[in-house]
Amino acid sequence: MNRMNRTTRLIIGAVVVVGVIAVAALAFIWFSGGDGAATAETVSDAVVPVTGESTVFDISAADSEVRFALDEDLRGTRVTVVGRTQDVDGQIAVDFANPANTTVGEITINVRTLATDNEFRNRAIRGVILGSSQDQFQFARFVPTAIEGLPESVTVGGDTFSFTMTGDLTLRDVTQPVTFDVTVTPVSESRIEGSAKATVTYGDFGMTIPDAPGVANIEDEVELEIDFVALPMVAGA
What we know:
The chain has 2 helices and 13 strands, in the order H-E-E-E-E-E-E-E-H-E-E-E-E-E-E.
């Protein structure tokens, strides 16, 4: 009987220890994630290079959105998790007469403000996965290195065209080459609309996703997307 009681106590003790560790881990994720408030303005560090008769456009954050998407099993149901932010900045120099002269400057995204439909997940992203609750990792940066497939000419006013853009994407303190498939519509000489998509593997950026109750089979690949509107740069801005 005493042996059984001792065994029972050991089992109960082990369960309690595991429970305490689990609660502590969840508390760490919650508090390390912060509240998601940006502490610095989202501004690209680099000025876009201008060639030919290009006009410089600024990405309009109010009209744009950056997203990530990946699949996971949530309480036994396969779902697609989507995180969104409008905190994006960058410049595009467009030569309507000679599109080959078009260049794209550094694109900066405040990944601290990425938000999904679940606050615990948001805090896990900020505190553990992206580390964006730390000021030094608040921003992701994409620096284009090559653009391929630009058309020889475009018609302003609805002529949609596609091309690829390769560059260096930095998340946390890791930089990896990424290629985006881009579609652009020059709506007018004062408005450009477009979208860009790429696929990355979060492990390539040194990221790990912590265990969470009810979550399993998280997809390795992450879809990165941006829908953007660009407007002519305001003098002095």
